[in-house]
Amino acid sequence: MSRIRLDHKWDGYYRIRSAPKVRRELERRAKLIADNCNRESGSDGYRTSSMQGARRPYGRWRTTVITATGKAMRHNAATQALIKHLQDG
After folding, report:
1. pTM for the complete prediction?
2. From CA 41, how far away is CA 77, in angstroms rounded?
3. Is residue 57 over pLDDT 70?
4. With DSSP H G I counted as helix, E B as strand and the rest as coil, what are the percentages for the chain, rounded to 5?
5. Interatomic CA distance for residues 6 and 38, integer angstroms
6. Which of 73, 60, 46, 49 is CA-nearest to residue 14?
7. How far is 53 from 28, CA to CA, in rounded Å?
8. CA dist 23 to 15, 61, 75, Å?
9. Whole-number Å distance between alpha carbons of 48 and 42
């Protein structure tokens, strides 16, 4: 059986992960999760952020949803809203 050799184009991975469509989709999903958590909690304490990671070698785009207020932290501790709404995104 012969061996298969793959040549990875690391720069291509980086470009795909930072493409505008990929970024928009990740941000859309994070915003949807935050909006659903905010609606459930009756506040605007769930917030999103978006950034590209270090290029070692991948540079993955990352979005996060955080609890930015005490009310959101208490709500999430009591209801596990972030985990529950993860499937929404």
Report:
1. 0.83
2. 12
3. no
4. 55, 15, 30
5. 45
6. 60
7. 18
8. 11, 7, 28
9. 17
